[in-house]
Structure formats: C-alpha cells, structure tokens
Fold this sequence. Notes:
- It is a single chain.
- With 297 residues, this protein is α+β, with helices and mostly antiparallel strands.
- The chain has ten helices and 15 strands.
- It has helices spanning 3-15, 18-25, 29-43, 59-85, 99-106, 110-116, 168-173, 223-231, 241-250, 283-296; strands spanning 48-50, 55-57, 91-97, 120-126, 140-145, 152-159, 162-166, 187-191, 199-203, 209-213, 215-220, 237-240, 254-255, 261-263, 270-276.
- The protein has a five-stranded mixed β-sheet with strand order 4-3-5-15-6, covered by helices on one side. Strands 12-7-13 form a three-stranded antiparallel β-sheet. It has a three-stranded antiparallel β-sheet with strand order 10-9-14, with no helix packed on it.
- α1 crosses α3 (29-43), α1 crosses α4 (59-85) and α2 (18-25) packs across α3 (29-43).
- The protein is elongated and about 95 Å long.
- The mean pLDDT is 88.
Amino acid sequence: MNISDLQTIIDVKSLGSFARVARAQGVDPSVVSRTVANVEDALGVRLFQRTTRRLTITDAGERYIRQVEPLIDELRAAASQLSEEAQAAQGTVRLSAPVSIGRALLLPHLSAFNDHYPDIRLECYFDDRVTDLVADGIDIAIRMAPFVSGDLICTKLRQTRYRVVASPRWLSINDAPTNPTDLTEHECVLFTLPGFRDQWIFRNNEDHEQTVPVSGKLLFSNGDSVVDAMLSGLGPALLTDALIAEHLSSGRCIDLFPDHRVTATTFDTAAWIVYPSRNYLPLKTRTVIDFLKENLA
C-alpha cells in the first residue's frame, strides 16, 4: 500500500464512483476497482459498499479516511521539504516590523543577508500597526510585546530593556533629575501609545517599584521621532536599548537613572519573531527566521 493507493481511496470517497476517479486519473475503471480491493484486503475491512447502481462508504471507511488524509498531506510535505533542501533557498519572503525596530535592528544586517542568500527577495514592511499575518500575506513579523497572542508560532528574539535618557543639550539648561519623581517637573517626549503617554514605572536595585506620572506637549507615534526629538534637546524620553545603544556609547544621550529598570507597562517584554501556525514552512522562510535569530538576538 502506497500514497498513490491511499489517494485513490480518498478520491473515490470525494467523487463518489470508480468511473469518475478513473477519468480524473486517466486510467481504466477496473484499475481503480482493483486498487480499492487491494487496500481493503490489506486492511481486512470493507471501505465501500458496491452495488450495480450505487457506491457508498462504510462507517469504517469514513473513520479510516478521516485519519489517513492528514497523514498523506504530512508525508507529501516532508517529501517536498527534502526536495527543497536539495536546492538553494529562493523566492520572496514578506517581513513586517515596527518602523524604528526595522531600521535599528534589521537594516544594518541586510547587506550580509543579500550576500549569503542572493536568491531570496526580502520584502520589508515597516509599519507600527499590528498586522494580520494571514490576511496581509505576511510570512514573518517582528513584534515588541510581553507576549504574542493568537494562533501564531512565536520565538523570543531578545529581551527588551527601556531607559529614560536625555541629551547633553537638555541637561545643560535643566537641572538633572536625581530621583524619578523629579520628572513630574519637566516636559517629557512621549509616545502616543496607550500606557506610554502618562506614566513610567521605575524599579530600583532593591526591587522597590514606583509609578511616576509624566507629561509633555510633544507626542510621537514611532520610536525614531522620539529619538530625534530627545537628541534635539526637547526633553527626556523612555526608549529601548535597541534604539539608543549607539547614542549612549557616543555620548549623544545620557541614561538619567542607570540604577533603575524602567518600563511603561511591564518589565517582562521582548522582541518576538512570529509567523503563521503551519505544519510546513518553506525553506526560504525558515532561512530568514534562522538568520534573524542568529544576527538580531
């Protein structure tokens, strides 16, 4: 009994007659009849009741086909995957990421990606909205969140750490905050995201937490704009390491509270690689996922 024989059984159930299956396969109806009989002999169970005028499936046939059909799909997917792995990864992969994360984390690695995988065409959609991967035809997304819900496969890419930073220019004309509560006296640069625009949460080395109200007249919808406004001296801002690591090392901004962990919502947040829940991933998609995990983690 092989996959072809089992597919014939499934086709007979679907089309309802040996003759229709024979036409679809381009063979004589007697070939289909013999195939069904051979499968039944091997199983020791009658799958179809035949009369001169009718063909009906038995209860045993229903149960058997219901169990076998998904197995055939998996066997074919496995064979296809092995065939694909014998070739170079190629084709188009559609990737979604928040604007600032795409620019800060992904763009610096794209040249190396092109060098290693010249046959993969990577379509990058940098957008701060949460995309519907299936509806929008997205193969892979990078998301910033404590967790990712829904029918998706998720892999943690990197833990996220936030800091409250300000530029030397701002510090030259304002008293440097010595305690998180001092921020209530200053205009901060804020995200428009719910939860980020009115309070920040601080945790010191003794795990003591305090929630500090913040306010400001400048609010932005993406991280790049918040970074630019902060560097211009417009106020302190709450930003992730991914966006400010280079500016911290160069001295273009200062961590105001290096002894504190800071967040707007929860301290347990991360960047995630997410992709639709599928039994089989094309080689091109798995190649991009492996590259992201190796280079962005």
